[in-house]
Amino acid sequence: MTHVKDAIEAGESPLGTWISVGHPTIAEAVAQLDIDFLLVDMEHTTMGLETVESIARSVDAADGETETVVRVPWNDPVRLKRVVDIGVAGVMVPMVGTAEEARELVRAVRYPPDGIRGIAGSRATEYGRNFEEYVANANGTILTIAQIETEAGLENAAEIAAVDGVDALFVGPADLSGALGKFAEWDSQSLTTAMASVIEAGNDADVPVGTLVTDLDDIDTRVQQGHDFLIAGKDVALLMDGVDEAIDRYDAAFEETTPAEQD
Predict the structure, then answer these.
(1) 3 state SS of 73
(2) pLDDT value at 226 more than 80
(3) Which residues pair with 169 in a beta bridge?
(4) In this predicted model, what pLDDT tens digit does every residue of 72-91 receive, in sequence order?
(5) pTM for the structure as a whole
(6) In the prediction, which pLDDT does 256 show?
(7) Which active-site residues does the annotation give?
(8) What is the DSSP pairing of strand 168-171 with strand 90-93?
(9) Who's near 65: CB < 8 A, 6+ residues apart?
(10) How many Å apart are CA 237 and CA 251, to the nearest integer?
(11) Which helix H or strand E contains 230, and what residues bound it?
């Protein structure tokens, strides 16, 4: 069992942040902070498996308990198999629309007889040194998150949450707002109602529900709405916000020290 999966199952509120820059230095630096997990995005970035493996190594090497969760590009057992073989703490799958798709996700990250994950030596098995013990005990130890971000997923959220082996639901606010015809209208009643229905489905199944906040001012709102955990901020956006603030402070400092023009 991993730290973040333990926290999810214990009803705690682990905090993550989003990694879209494919360089281990970013992950290594953030993993030194008091944060529970990094969500490494393979869906909307150019990152390949070797990069993700290097990121996982850098996170594991950092002090503390920060862990790596990977969002794969699609609910594909081959992609999932190769990611979990790296030895990450969990996976998140986009656009899960039905209970059957959720069951396929669970089967993809579990060995037979519970699933279809192929058996082989890998980083997860310490390159074969821990092969038999790992295979015997791995099922149920990988945090498994289904993203709800389509109309189908919204309609079937209760059935998806009820699938044995789905550890958490995750509302994808951008795609869900687009599916509702309210793209980027983060405060729209339609999106608020939809998110509330996913939270209700999770609560009914005793399955935590998380979401992403890119504007840190929204953290209080999302917590008050009933989300159980958050991914707060994206690496590129946080970097740009920091540089923007530096620019503003720099300009303000020179404006304060420039003598007023004489008449």
Answers:
(1) coil
(2) yes
(3) 146, 209
(4) 999 999 999 999 999 999 99
(5) 0.96
(6) 85
(7) 44
(8) unpaired
(9) 3, 36
(10) 21
(11) strand 229-234
- Retrieve residue 115's tokens: 């699933």
Residue 79: half-sphere exposure toward Cβ, Cα within 13 Å:
18
Gap between the terminal Cα atoms of the chain: 73
Q: Is the dihedral of CA 116, 121, 124, 129 positive or negative?
A: positive
Strands 67-71 and 90-93: parallel
Structure tokens at 19: 């990694």
Q: Does domain 3-235 have CATH number 3.20.20.60?
A: yes
What tokens were used for 150?
């389509």
Query: Model confidence over 100-151: pLDDT tens digits?
Result: 999 999 999 999 999 999 999 999 999 999 999 999 999 999 999 999 999 9
> Whose structure tokens read 């009803």?
11
Q: Where are the domains of the chain?
A: 3-235
Residues comprising the chain, all counted: 263
CA dist., res. 122 & res. 28, Å (int)? 22
Residues 68, 89 contacting (CB under 8 angstroms)? yes
Q: Locate 88 and state its tokens.
A: 């990450």
Give dist(CA 36, CA 13) in Å, integer: 9
Chain centroid to CA 48: 17
